[in-house]
Design brief:
The protein is mainly α. The chain has one domain. It is built from six helices and no strands. α1 crosses α3 and α4 runs parallel beside α6. It starts with a helix and ends with a helix. The relative contact order is 0.09.
Amino acid sequence: MDTTTGFNRELRFMLLEQYGLKKVISHPDVSENDLMIIIGHTKYQEERALATIRLQTINSEHISVDIAEYKKAKHVNGLGAARARAQFNYDLQKRYMYASPTEQAAIQKILSD
């Protein structure tokens, strides 16, 4: 990570901390990037645990949506459907390492079809 990126993450964490980390974590529109910053920078175990749980919840929601959308586009012909399948495939691969074992099995099943 270059110094600019690290500096930006530090500044972002300071802003999140001023707003209130627990308030940020419980906000419905919190981004995955903000949660990753909180996990990486907070010194309090409770806030790290809350951010981790929230990140796992968001990841699970995205996985279930991506699987459902991939199934819809699986048998559709055309360039648009092929691009959609490729995007869902990419998203599922990206989220695989953060998924639960059950979700990992579902992702593997989808990707192997």
